[in-house]
Amino acid sequence: MPRSLFILFAAAVAALPASAQDQPMAEELKPERAMAIVIRNALAPESYGDWRYNWDAVSIRISSNLHWHLAGPDDPDADLITRRGWISAAGQQIAVMASGEGETVSALDFEVNSWRRGADEAADVLAALAAEGITATEVERRDAPEFSNTDEPVIVYRLSVPKRDAGNLTRSVSCTPPGSAAARRCGVFYSLALGG
User: HSE of 87 in the Cβ direction (CA atoms, 13 Å)?
Assistant: First the structure.
C-alpha cells in the first residue's frame, strides 16, 4: 500500500506545472522593463499595514526580480542601512541599492552604466513603467549639479499605480570630468523614494 501511494504522489507531482524559475523565459526582459517590474513591486499595496516598507516586506516583494549580495542589512543599528544587489536583463546588469533607517526601507537606487547604443533610455523607461500600469507624471525639472559633469537635467516623476502607494522617481546622469585620464563615461541613475 505505501508503494502505491508513493507512485500516485510521484505521478501527481510530475503532472504539476514547473515553477516560474524552472521554466525558460520566452523572451529575456529588457533592462528598463526589469527595472519597472521591481519599481512596481516595491510600491506597496494600499491595503498593507504600517509594516509595508519594513526590510522583510520590501525584500519579499522585489527579490524574485533581483539578486542580493547580502541576506539582510549589515548593521541594523546604523543611522543609514543599505543593502546592495543587481538586476540581470538582456546581458546588462543594473546595480540596485536599498536604503533606509532602522526597520524601514525609504529608497531604491538604480544605476546603469550604459544603455543600448542609440536608445532613448528615458522614453524606454517611461514606456516600461506604463506597461506595468504605472503612470509617471513629471513634477520637477532642475539643472544638474556641477559635479555631475553633464547638461542633462534632473527630472522627478510622480509615480501612481491603482491600489498601490505612490512614489517619486528621480532620474539623473553623472559623467566623468572632461579631460580626465579615464575615457569619458556616463551613468544613468534612478532613485525611487518609497512611502509617499
Answer: 28
Cβ atoms of 137 and 129 closer than 8 Å: no
φ/ψ of 40, rounded to 5, equals: -60, -45
Of residues 180 and 97, more confidence is placed in 97
| Order of strands across the sheet that contains 154-160 | 67-68, 81-89, 92-101, 104-112, 186-193, 167-175, 154-160, 135-142
**Residue 45: closest CA among 184, 145, 167, 187:** 167
Could you tell me the pTM of the whole model?
0.79
Q: Which residue has the cell 520590501?
A: 58
Across 67-76, 88-97, 174-183, the highest mean pLDDT is recorded for 88-97
